[in-house]
Each structure stands twice: as structure tokens, then as C-alpha cells.
Amino acid sequence: MFVAIDHVQLAIPAGSEGVVRAFYTGPLRMTEVPKPAALAVRGGCWFAAGPVQLHLGVEADFRPARKAHPALVADDLDALAERLAAAGAPVRWSDEIPGVRRFHTEDPVGNRIEVLAPSG
């Protein structure tokens, strides 16, 4: 039986670490986590916020994830939406799931990210 997800990995193009760092540590307010030396030589970067971890790995034939995505629960959905919009990131609200407040955004390389309010 699974008890948790350790991390979700998203692909990024080579050389994009700077722009994704600014996004994930900026409006998303995640903390960069040092990669182990053996993995750091591959490029990419890792981020965490509480128990949530996102790993961004360099992929040679990169194509952004437009359908597949992490779904993150934010304690202040409206404030995060405002920070993302102020940073120039798209904020597309969705009411397709009754009773669930959520929106979708994209990181600077086009990867889709869903953000939800806590349930209950």
C-alpha cells in the first residue's frame, strides 16, 4: 500500500533553470532543495514547500506537460492567484468540479499546474 507521494517530476529544457527558479521560489514561494552531487550534474532543480516536493529535470527533447500536471493545495488560493497574475503567469479558474475552488497556471516553460483550495 502506498502512504504518500514523495515528489512529482516535471521536465524542463536545458538552460531554463534560472527562469524556473524565479517562478517556483517567487510567486509559488517554494524553497530550492539542493540536489545530490551525482544528480546535480544532470541539471534541473528541486523545490519543496512543507511536505510537497517538485523535481524539475532537464529533458533533451523537451515538450511542456499540457495535460499531465501536479495538483497543489494552497492555503490561500486567492493570494496565490494574485501573486501569479502579478508575475505574468496565467490564472485560469475552473468550476468544472462542483464544490472545488481551483485554477490552472503554467510555469515559465509551459508545464501545467493545478492549484486547489483545501477541501472542507
Automatic annotation (TrEMBL):
InterPro entries reported in the protein's UniProt record: Glyas_Bleomycin-R_OHBP_Dase, Glyoxalase_6, VOC_core
Source species, domain of life: Bacteria
VOC domain boundaries: 4-118
Protein name: VOC family protein
Species annotation: Streptodolium elevatio
